[in-house]
Give the backbone structure.
Amino acid sequence: AKQQGRNRYNYFAPFMQEATRVRMALGNEMREAVEREELRIVFQPIIELASGRICKAEALVRWQHPQRGLMSPHEFIAIAEHTGAIVGIGDWVFRQAAREAKRLQQMALPEFQICVNKSAWQFRDDGSNYQEWLDFLAELDLQAHNIIIEVTEDLLLDPASAIADKFKAFRAANMQVSLDDFGTGYCSVAFLKRYDIDYIKIDPSFVSNLAEGTDGITLCGAIIAMAHKLGIQVIAEGIETPQQMQALQSVGCDFGQGYLFSKPISGLELEKSIKNQYAP
Ligand code: C2E
Ligand code: CA
Ligand code: CA
Ligand code: CA
């Protein structure tokens, strides 16, 4: 058995080292990704279900790696968080998102909002570049109301984040807050109340479960009713079929996002889609 164990070790060790080596290399390269202009931003439209119109969009980052090609955030966000590179990346995404919101405002859409993901790690050091963000908005002459910060519940559950105070500052500036991936963790109604969240995003794992005759729709309906009682609006994520959309509409869901409406697209494509839909 010992012999076998050693063989197994010999077999896996180079593989493990390779994975670690790749992570380290990516971590190093990532520090320069912003300066080298290798990051890209895409926007996924968010539709108001009652009107069918695009009224918000979520900013999502991509990394155009010189050797590895276009990389999804799943391949690098976690590494960026652990190396601290997420702060620079997050600032870059925020600025691009704000610029896009400004362009849309200039297309006579004063209410259009762009959602920006902000991971718990970006709140760790108290800098959290919050004032810089507000200064940048002022420079652009853009209302903070045009930006929604998307956070996940690990942030709310992290006592070190002093998050309640930071949320107060956001709200004082009129920036809204959305709770991502709702339903996947331990977040309770009490949390939603305490942090005065503006939106919750129902996780795709609930939306994919909306087939007829399942409890899925009952569950979504209950979440939505509860949210509305607290003055919170609901965005359902990962809508892929008309059936899912109709089911969500039937229980009063406010907004939808997913491949049924659109994949994430460039800023230019977003502007085109919006122009088309508002054209007479
Ligand atoms: P997320 O915030 O939950 O973003 C939604 C993800 O679902 C996106 O993946 C989007 O492309 C994908 N998606 C949208 N519609 C559908 C659908 O109908 N079906 C399915 N199966 N998937 C759909 P993406 O762009 O790969 O982003 C993955 C995650 O990376 C995001 O999940 C977010 O947690 C993180 N992320 C992306 N951009 C940033 C960023 O700028 N900063 C930070 N901190 N995290 C980011
Ligand atoms: Ca998100
Ligand atoms: Ca999500
Ligand atoms: Ca509220």
Observations:
- The pocket of C2E (ligand 1) is lined by residues 44, 60-61, 72-74, 77, 90, 93, 117-119, 180-181, 204, 238-240, 258-259, 264 (CB under 6 Å).
- The chain has eleven helices and nine strands.
- The first strand starts at residue 39 and ends at 48.
